[in-house]
Amino acid sequence: MGGDGWVLAGDAATFLDPVFSTGVFLALAMGIRAAAAVDRALARHGRVDARDLARYEKESRKLVQRFRRFVYNFYDPVFFEAFCTPDPPTPMRRAVTTVLAGGVESPPLSLRIWTRLMLWGVGFDRFRRRIGLGPKPEAARREPTAA
C-alpha cells in the first residue's frame, strides 16, 4: 500500500464491492492513517520511506479484511438466505449492520464473538450443503418459471 515516497488509500489501495459502499469509509479511514504516517515520517527525517508506512499498512489491511469477510459471505447463498429471512436473529442483523455502517475499527468483544460464530456457522452450513447433508439454498430450489 506504500513505498518510498508514495502511499495508496481507499479504492486506490484496494477495492471490495460497490454494493456495500465501503469505499468512502475505507478512503477516509485509510487516508487519516496514511496522513499520520506521512506526517510522522516527514517530521522524523524529512522523507517517506516504505518502512515508515508499515503500521499504516498493517492497520489498513485489518480494516479491509473485516469488510472482506462480510462482502464475500454476503454473496454466498447460505449467508444471504440466513440474513434475508423475514426475521433474522437480532445479534446477526446487528453484527452485519454495524460492520456495514463502518463499525469495524473498535468493535466490542460481543460483536467480534457473534461475528465469528455467525461466519463459522455459515461456513459449516455451506460445507454440509456441499456434501449433500442439508437443504439447498432457497434460490437454488426455486422452480424455473415459464415465459
Order of helices and strands: EEHHHHHH
Query: How helical, in percent, are the residues?
Result: 55-70%
Low-confidence stretches: none
Provide the β-strand percentage band. Answer: under 5%
How much is the radius of gyration in Å?
Answer: 20 Å
Total discrete domains: 2
Shape: elongated
Counting copies of identical and different chains, the oligomeric state is single chain
Would you write up a description of this structure?
It is a single chain. The chain has 147 residues and is mostly helical. The chain folds into 2 domains: 1-65, no CATH class; 76-136. 61% of the residues lie in helices and 3% in strands. It is built from 6 helices and 2 strands. A two-stranded antiparallel ribbon has the order 1-2. Helix 4 crosses helix 5 (109-130). It is elongated. 18% of the residues are buried. The model has no long low-confidence stretch (mean pLDDT 78).
Annotation keywords:
mainly alpha, single chain, 61% helix, 3% strand, two-stranded antiparallel ribbon, elongated, 147 residues
Topology (elements, then pairings):
Blueprint: E1 2-3, E2 6-7, H1 22-45, H2 54-74, H3 77-83, H4 90-100, H5 109-130, H6 138-141
Antiparallel strand pairs: 1-2
Helix pairs in contact: 1-2, 4-5
